[in-house]
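Ligand: copper (II) ion. Inputs:
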Amino acid sequence: MKALAVSLATAALLAGCGGSSPSQPSGSIKVTLTEFKFDPSTISVPHGKVVFYLVNSGSVQHDMAIRDSSNNQMDKSELVSAGDSSVFTVNNIAAGTYTIYCTQQGHEASGMKGTLTVT
Ligand SMILES: [Cu+2]
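Predicted complex:
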């Protein structure tokens, strides 16, 4: 009984600390962030509203930003701590080819980028 009480207290502590870790919304696209890549790194979606579900399975903070072919940053997720997840909603994206990348120092250069094709 004592062991159970301890494990419940630990679970409550874990749930209460750190950032938010929402579950995956229906219709969202799950993207796993690690050092240093997005999985999948090639994503194709219809234009309009796109919801990404970012899961950081790495050991440092990551985010996901989107830039267009003119190198303008269109949108950016919040920073996702290691072990956390985050919902990243892009409300009105037009058809085109975009680059997804992590804005953390050195991550894109290390390979943390990909292609977002919007049709
Ligand atoms: Cu990163």
